[in-house]
Amino acid sequence: MDIELFETISLYVGIGGLILFMGFIMWDLAKESKAGKFGTFVLFGALGLGLLGFVIKTVLVEYLNL
After folding, report:
1. Are 11 and 32 in contact (CB under 8 A)?
2. Crossing angle of the two packed helices 3-32 and 36-64, in degrees rounded to 10
3. Predicted model pTM
4. Radius of gyration over alpha carbons of the chain, in Å?
5. Using CA atoms, how far apart are residues 22 and 16, in angstroms rounded to an integer?
6. pLDDT of 61
7. 34 DSSP assignment
């Protein structure tokens, strides 16, 4: 395995881990604040949009570089 492949795999694993961790943080924030179903939906919607924007940007950049 060369260094470029290792860095690529590490990047995707690291970003994936951070995305999962952010999801856990949003869930824990909703639970600790007793937000209820609607409040949890709003938290995941608002904070998840930023995360979704990052993922969409990454996909678009990779698609446009082909």
Report:
1. no
2. 160
3. 0.69
4. 16
5. 10
6. 92
7. T
